[in-house]
Amino acid sequence: SRLTSGQTLTISDIILGLLASLICALIISYTYKNAYQGVLYQKSFNLGLILITLVTTGVIMVISGNLILSLGMVGALSIVRFRSAIKDPLDIVFMFWAVFVGIANGVANIKVSFTTTFVIFIIMMVVKRFPLTTKSFLLIIKCSPEAEQKLLAIVSENCKKFYLKSKNINSEQLEMIFEANINEEKELTSQLLNVSGTIDVNIISYSSNFLDN
User: Fold this and answer.
1) 202: which strand partners?
2) Most-buried pick from 69, 136, 184, 199 (CB within 10 A)?
3) How far is residue 156's CA from residue 30's CA, in Å, rounded to a whole number?
4) At 207, which helix (H) or strand (E)?
5) Which residue, 16, 118, 29, 1, is CA-closest to 58?
6) Residue 63 to residue 81: CA distance in whole angstroms
7) pLDDT tens per residue, the chain (213 residues)?
8) CA distance 49 to 101
9) SS3 (DSSP) at 36
10) How far is 127 from 120, CA to CA, in rounded Å?
């Protein structure tokens, strides 16, 4: 193949490589949209994954088999500073995935790019359907100091695991903050509010990632 040998490319060679990258990029885009973990989904980043794949494919086609161009490209990229903050570690994985597909299709390793893309897609969909973690909450209880022991007993009964992170107390009020894996939120809050001396109960999701749900 001219893509792997570094020979002069024809229009059909270029279209073939870009088409393969586009198909893989659309799969990457679909996977990112359906496996996104954050709260604020960015369509621009998803579109960027598609463009990264296609641009990388074009770059690899240009420098393939040409040592001088390869060194020049490395030098050019070394002076570029990317300042966009990556908020989710998983976003980095998707970026590497897009770059990998672009490199593979740029040198005509279409079987490798399609097989790897398909395997990663299956893994992501399985992880989404069968989460590997449990959901944690911040449980904030405000009460009178006399009610502390009763409330601790209720928390212990209704949580798989819990940890007292903070305890603030004065002569009139006690505030306890727990990190907890709660069995049933409604049952827990109902029991806590029924205790004499309970002032307020707040449950806050400790993770914004839907894969943790």
Assistant:
1) 140
2) 136
3) 42
4) none
5) 16
6) 21
7) 555 555 567 888 889 989 999 999 999 999 998 887 665 677 888 899 999 999 989 888 877 766 555 555 655 555 455 555 666 678 888 989 999 999 898 888 889 999 999 999 999 888 877 655 556 788 899 999 888 899 999 998 888 888 888 888 887 889 999 988 888 888 888 899 999 889 999 888 765 444 444
8) 11
9) coil
10) 10
Distance CA 2, CA 206 (A): 53
The single-letter DSSP state of residue 9 is P
In degrees and rounded to multiples of 5, residue 9 shows phi and psi of: -90, 145
Residue bearing tokens 């049952």: 187
CA 116, 118, 121, 123 dihedral sign is negative
DSSP bridge pairs for 205: 137
Token code pair at residue 108: 């005509």
Sequence-ordered list of residues with C-beta below 8 angstroms from that of 73, at least 6 positions apart, any chain: 59, 62, 63
Mapping DSSP to helix (H, G, I), strand (E, B) and coil, where does residue 18 land?
helix
Q: Alpha-carbon distance 70 to 60, whole Å?
A: 9
Cβ atoms 98, 53 nearer than 8 A = yes
Token pair for 116: 């790897």
Under 8 Å CB-to-CB from 88, ≥6 apart: which residues?
A: 37, 38
Q: List, in order, residues 6 or more apart from 6 with CB less than 8 Å away.
A: 64, 65, 66
